[in-house]
Amino acid sequence: MPGFRSTVRIVGYGMTPLGKLRQPASVLMQSALEKALASSGLQLKDLDGLIAVPSLSHPHFMEAHFLATKVGLLPQKNVTVRTLDTGGAGPVTGLLEAARMVRTERCHAVAVVAGDAVASMDTRSFLERADAGCRDPVAPLPSPCIPHGYDRVAQWQLEMGSVTREQLAMVPVLMSRQALRHPLALTRVPLSLDEVLAAESIAPRTGRLECARRADGGACVIVADSEFVDRRLGHDARSSRDGIASPSLGPAARGGGVVLLGGGEASGPLYPPPVIDEAMFSCEQAAASAFSEAQLLPQDIDLFGLYDCFPICFVRALEACGVAPRGGGGAWVEEMHERTSSTYAPADFPINTHGGLLAFGAPWEVPAMYNIIEACAQLNGMAGARQVPGARRALVYGNGGIFSHSAVAILAKPV
Length: 415
Ligand code: CAA
Description:
The protein has helices spanning about 25-40, 65-70, 90-105, 125-135, 145-160, 165-180, 195-200, 225-230, 235-240, 285-295, 310-320, 330-340, 355-360, 365-380; strands spanning about 10-15, 50, 80-85, 110-115, 200-205, 205, 215-225, 260-265, 305, 395-400, 405-410. The strands form two sheets. It has a nine-stranded mixed β-sheet with strand order 3-2-4-7-1-8-11-10-9, sandwiched between helices. A two-stranded antiparallel sheet has the order 5-6. It is an alpha/beta fold. The chain has 14 helices and eleven strands. Acetoacetyl-coenzyme A (CAA) binds near residues 123, 202, 212 and 365.
């Protein structure tokens, strides 16, 4: 595929459980890294690259260096580690950067790791840190700043008439229905529209159940040159293509892993501008770059992992990624709300099949990694009750800050 060596693959992925885990973020990161390595069949000594995104609960100077030192990857020659901060877009930015490292820096295997423990923080400490990153010194948002920032965008869309208050509240209902099929999801009972609308108000148009569900958790993916993986594990690449599993390959690497077909990124303002208009949004540009690089169209995608920290982010992502027509995201949500109100198959609603930030869980900058991991599980045919039959291509989107950064990647099952 253009721009990407075809042998660059996601060959491993892993995550910790979510919840109030009362462990430092670096412990969660290390645990996720170990699980991802096990799922690939590789070992720590096989890594020559590591990317980490920062943690809010336990910040470290040079997070990736800190983690690499903690696990014993540093000090060592020929290892490159990087900390990337594009907020919640970080895992997708990290995935694209890891692919670049394999493609152009001759790295063999790069781990992309994220972990945080924001549910174990008391609310005051959490909000002090979360607000500090998003409070515009000129026109400060009220606390909690992030929900209020998204609320301003929701208000603008409501005034434009492209979405209704009820349609926004249907988003967590949809995510709660999806989450029921994932054993690790935090939300275990489906929400009703009335419940969401009646929940405690956090900002004028945002109730508690419409906020990213705070969680602790770690997650990791391993990006590698599949020829290196084959050589390292003594595996014959042809047998993989023929579907014959080598005993030394981990389950995520069998069948050749998952291919990255294309990616795109774009940035918006750190703080919502005084007057909101289309100029502040960047997902459209990131998605267009990813589609262009992959030489695909939205209708070629079988499965989407769309950032849903607040309903308005999800509604805009539906439109930016071509799932719904421009201005039609709210109506699309309403239609899905109706369609999934009784028994439905994963293929009827192949979006955030794990439940997204609203219902699976949201450990600060980690959740876009769940979009990637869910896409890999689906493309590998390992998603159990959530499996979208025959899923071949997936789009994943990570969003940082208050629409401040967008990163989109298109993944595929190898042919
Ligand atoms: N669905 C279901 N239950 C939820 C929920 C949801 N979406 N959100 C919260 N709850 C539950 C919690 O699990 C908790 O249940 P338990 O008491 O059983 O543990 C209960 O409601 C209370 O939740 P909190 O403890 O979070 O409530 P709080 O009063 O302490 O804080 C809040 C409320 C200020 C709204 C806080 O939850 C909050 O700030 N949430 C938003 C978090 C956030 O902004 N995340 C970042 C999103 S933007 C992004 O992702 C981009 C980036 O760059 C990081």
